[in-house]
Design a protein that fits this description.
Blueprint lengths: L1 H41 L21 H4 L4 H6 L4 H20 L4 H26 L13 H26 L4 H20 L2 H21 L1 H25 L8 H5 L1
Helix pairs in contact: 4-8
C-alpha cells in the first residue's frame, strides 16, 4: 500500500511538472509572437512608389481641352459637338471653294447676298396682302459689345507679347529666340510662294480641326515618339551650341559683364 501511495504521489508530481512546462511553453510562445508583432508594427512604412512623370508635348500638364481654353472654341476644335464642328469646317470649306477655286470676290459675294436677301424681303413685305400671307418678321440685329471687347483685349495682349519678344531679339539678348524666329519667318516665306493667304488660312483652319482631336485620342502613343525626338534635338542642339553658338559674341551686354 505504501508503494502504491508513493507511486501515485510521484505520478501526480510528474503530471504537475508536465503541466508547468506546457504552460511555460505557451507563455513563451505568446510573448515571442507579441514581441514580433510589436517589432513589425514599429517598422517604418515603406514610402509609396511615386509614378514616373509622363512626358507631354510642349511640357503641358493640363488636358488638351484646357490648353485650348476649355470653352466653346475648344469644344469645336476637339469635336465635342460633331454637328457644330462639321458645320464650321463645312462653312470654311465652302468659303475656300468660292474664293479660291471659283475665283469669287468678297465684295461681289457680299453684294449678291444682300441684293437677293433685300429683294425677297421687300417683295414679300409688299405682296403679303395679295397672296394672303403674313408679312415676314424681320428681327433687329444688334451686335453685343462684350465679345468684341474680349477679342480686342486678347489680341492686344498677344501683340504686346510679340513686340516684347521682337524687342529682346533686336537688342541682341536672346540668340536662341533670334534663330527660332528667323527659321520660322523663312518657313513662312517659302510657304507663301506655294499658296496665297486664303489657302494658308484654310490649311491652318483644317489642321486646327484635325490635329488636336487626333492627338487627344492617341496622345499615349504620340508622346513617347515626341520624347525621343526632343532628346535627339537637344543632343544636336548641344553640339551646335558648343561648336557654333558659343563662339558668337553675345552683344555689348555680355562684353560689359
Amino acid at each position: 500500500m505504501a508503494d502504491q501511495s508513493e507511486s501515485a504521489g510521484s505520478t501526480v508530481e510528474h503530471d504537475k511538472s508536465m503541466m508547468e512546462k506546457i504552460s511555460e511553453k505557451i507563455h513563451d510562445h505568446d510573448s515571442s509572437s507579441s514581441s514580433s508583432s510589436d517589432s513589425d508594427n514599429e517598422k517604418p512604412e515603406s514610402p509609396k512608389s511615386e509614378k514616373p512623370k509622363v512626358f507631354r508635348i510642349f511640357g503641358r500638364e493640363k488636358p488638351v481641352h484646357h490648353v485650348f481654353g476649355g470653352g466653346k472654341p475648344a469644344d469645336v476644335f476637339l469635336w465635342r459637338n460633331k454637328k457644330v464642328s462639321a458645320g464650321v469646317l463645312g462653312g470654311a470649306t465652302a468659303v475656300w471653294v468660292l474664293f479660291e477655286l471659283l475665283e469669287y470676290h468678297l465684295l461681289t459675294l457680299v453684294g449678291h447676298i444682300l441684293i437677293g436677301t433685300l429683294a425677297v424681303l421687300f417683295l414679300w413685305s409688299n405682296a403679303h396682302s395679295f397672296i394672303h400671307k403674313t408679312p415676314p418678321r424681320i428681327p433687329e440685329v444688334r451686335l453685343p459689345e462684350e465679345p468684341f471687347l474680349q477679342v480686342a483685349s486678347e489680341l492686344r495682349l498677344q501683340i504686346n507679347w510679340a513686340f516684347a519678344v521682337l524687342h529682346d531679339i533686336a537688342s541682341g539678348r536672346e540668340l536662341k529666340k533670334f534663330l527660332i524666329v528667323i527659321a520660322g519667318l523663312w518657313v513662312v516665306s517659302i510657304v507663301g510662294t506655294w499658296c496665297n493667304f486664303l489657302t494658308l488660312f484654310y490649311i491652318t483652319f483644317v489642321l486646327l480641326h484635325t490635329v488636336p482631336v487626333l492627338y487627344e485620342k492617341y496622345e499615349d502613343k504620340i508622346d513617347p515618339f515626341a520624347e525621343k525626338a526632343t532628346i535627339e534635338f537637344k543632343k544636336h542642339y548641344a553640339v551646335f551650341d558648343a561648336k557654333v553658338l558659343s563662339k558668337i559674341p553675345q552683344g555689348l551686354k555680355n562684353k560689359r559683364s
